[in-house]
Design goal:
The protein is mostly beta strands. Among the domains are: 70 residues, Carboxypeptidase-like, regulatory domain (Immunoglobulin-like); 67 residues, Immunoglobulin-like, CATH 2.60.40.10; 66 residues, Carboxypeptidase-like, regulatory domain (Immunoglobulin-like, Sandwich); 210 residues, Porin. It contains 2 helices and 49 strands. The N and C termini lie far apart (147 Å).
Length: 627
């Protein structure tokens, strides 16, 4: 029995050993049998993409790689595409094929805001119409894009700009389409002190009165003074220039009272004291003394209401400037407490909202410590609110004082800046009177007048006793800039003198003829004066019977003809608005001495060839614009 049990126990032990060996063999076989992963490209774009397995770089698509059985992370990536990422479970001996198709990444985009000083204009981005101004365009890809706004017609300009769009950001473009017109100014003087001046029906002050920022074209100026009939004149304002108008009262007012109503719109209707009188102009003469109510209306225009009183020596003259029904406008600024001025007139604090007549207006926003913002706007009839946003910059300059304004006014005054010896001609409408003394001319008097922008003329007389010359001068020139001018002066004339006696009796009178051409170059220092230099060529034909160093010694050839070169310069100072003083020095650099200029006072001194004049200039007239 014990033997049988022993045999059975041995058999069991052998079976256990064999089973253990079998299990060990199976486990050992699993570790030696790896898995294989095969990664292929589903399209051409995926081919060559980088592969990471369990975070480690493993090559590029396509790829065949042996891996240990178990769980692995497979990633496939390429610039511009969404990264493929997937977990796989691999069994021993398994071959797993993974086809990969990468999806393109969505492009990064930004947005674009386009504003312009004209609304409703079509905007093209990269040649594609995207809408009208103002406009916001979203979803634009990163990089450069071309923004184009076509010109709507005359008075406007096209806009073309390349902008760079950044991802998740907004780019702003502010386009200027409208071409701002250049404005003019007007100054009115009157023959009666204290006369009230009105411009286009609006009082602008007591004479002399001025108004800047005027649109070029026709304007009506009127002056009123007690005891005189009103005087009016139509004047044309020129862009970039100041017009000066002088109104003279000539007709005393009559005892008969009169009402005169005129309007800028001929189709308007005039109502006086509630009674319709028809279309302007309306004249009621004689008018009932007292105060009257006047209303001028026209379809599509804002009515004008005025009151005026008539009586002895007092008439009622009204010019109604009818403005088209306004366009709603709102003006905003980045500065608190700023003030708005429309066409030079204060309109109130900013933000400001109200109606403005259709047409062109000048807007100015002012604030202490900031640079004034000035812009021109053109309004078209519309019920849509026009919003104008103003960005003001801090001012680094000192505040403008009344003295600064006075200096600027002086620099812009054409009469004050007028000088007579420079290369530039006199301004149109300006007349000057020159008075001087010196050598050889002990007394000289001349008058010049501006004819055109490039031409003036003058007449002169000068004498030193022995000879008195008369000549005319024509100067053509060009004001190249505010501080430099050049010109040419042609002078033609002649003179006479008393007859000279010698031992044989009375001889022929002294006389001469001359022709001069000067080339002038000038530096201007407005409003202080100018420094000028010139080169000249002279021809002189003098009848003088005596020697150039002895006025008692006769010569055989009494007439002397000679050509000479002359070099000179002048320094002219502006003393007041109407008076200048000047010094002129010149010398002969080529040619002979003139006998007629020798031994004038005795002593045997010949012609010195060096001449000079000291003089003053009186300026008057009405200049037609700044030089």
């Amino acid at each position: 029995m014990q033997g049988l049990l022993g045999v059975s126990g041995g058999v069991v032990r052998v079976a256990l050993v064999l089973g253990f060996l079998a299990l060990s063999s199976q486990a050992f076989g699993q570790t030696l049998d790896p898995a294989v992963v095969v990664i292929t490209a589903g399209d051409d774009a995926t081919s060559g993409a980088a592969i990471r397995i369990d975070g480690a770089p493993s090559g590029n698509v396509p790829l065949r790689k042996t891996l240990d059985p178990g769980r692995h992370l497979v990633q496939v990536g390429k610039r511009g595409f969404v990264t493929y990422s997937n977990w796989v479970d691999l069994a021993a001996g398994q071959v797993l094929s993974i086809p990969v198709t990468l999806q393109p990444q969505a492009p990064k985009t930004g947005s674009l805001l386009i504003t312009a000083d004209v609304t409703g204009l079509p905007v093209l981005i990269d040649g594609q119409n995207r809408g009208g101004t103002p406009l916001v365009v979203d979803g634009l890809t990163e990089g450069e894009h071309v923004v184009e706004i076509e010109s709507p017609g005359e008075g406007y300009q096209a806009f073309l700009k390349t902008v760079v769009i950044k991802a998740d950001a907004r780019t702003t473009v502010d386009a200027t389409i409208r071409i701002a017109p250049e404005l003019g100014s007007l100054r009115v003087i009157a023959s009666v002190p204290g006369a009230i001046i009105s411009l286009d029906g609006e009082d602008i002050g007591v004479a002399p009165a001025a108004r800047a920022g005027l649109t070029p074209g026709e304007h009506l100026v009127m002056a009123r003074a007690t005891g005189y009939e009103p005087v009016e004149q139509s004047v044309t304002v020129i862009a970039g220039r100041e017009r000066v108008v002088s109104l003279r009262f000539t007709t005393p007012a009559t005892d008969t009272a009169r009402i005169l109503v005129r309007a800028s719109v001929p189709e308007a209707t005039v109502s006086i004291d509630g009674e319709d009188y028809g279309n302007p102009p309306i004249t009621i003469e004689p008018a009932e003394p007292g105060t009257h109510s006047i209303v001028v209306r026209a379809p599509g225009y804002r009515e004008v209401r005025r009151t005026c009183s008539v009586g002895p020596n007092r008439n009622c003259d009204i010019y109604a400037e009818l403005n088209a029904l306004g366009v709603p406008v709102r003006v905003e600024a980045n500065v608190a407490g700023a003030q708005l001025f429309v066409d030079g007139e204060p309109s109130g604090p900013v933000p400001w909202e109200g109606d403005l007549p259709a047409g062109t207006h000048q807007l100015e926003v002012r604030a202490d410590g900031y640079e004034s913002h000035v812009e021109q706007i053109r309004l078209q009839k519309s019920s849509r609110l026009r919003v104008i946003q103003v960005i003001m910059s801090a001012s680094a300059a000192a505040p403008v004082t009344s003295a600064d304004r006075q200096k600027e006014a002086e620099r812009a005054d054409p009469l004050r800046n007028t000088v007579t010896h420079a290369g530039a001609p006199l301004p149109v409408g300006v007349v000057t009177l020159d008075i001087s003394t010196g050598w050889p001319w002990l007394a000289q008097l001349g008058m010049r007048a501006g004819l055109t922008k490039f031409l003036d003329v003058g007449i002169y007389v000068a004498s030193f006793g022995r000879l008195t010359d008369f000549w005319v001068s024509t100067k053509a020139g060009w004001k190249v800039s505010r501080n430099f001018s050049l010109g040419g002066d042609l002078q033609v004339g002649g003179g006479v003198g008393p007859a000279q006696r010698d031992q044989s009796g009375v001889r022929d009178p002294t006389n001469n003829f001359f022709l001069s051409l000067d080339a002038i170059f000038s530096l201007h220092f407005p409003p202080r004066g100018a420094l000028s230099v010139w080169m000249a060529m002279d021809f002189n034909s003098d009848r003088w019977d005596f020697s150039g160093s002895n006025s008692d010694l006769l010569v055989t050839n009494s007439r002397q003809n000679l050509v000479r070169g002359r070099l000179g310069g002048s320094l002219e100072f502006v003393v007041t608005r109407k008076w200048n003083v000047w010094l002129e020095v010149e010398g002969i650099v080529a040619g002979q001495r003139r006998r007629v200029l020798g031994d004038v006072f005795g002593g045997g001194h010949p012609d010195a060839k060096v001449y000079g004049q000291l003089g003053a200039t009186f300026k008057f007239g009405t200049p037609q614009g700044d030089r």
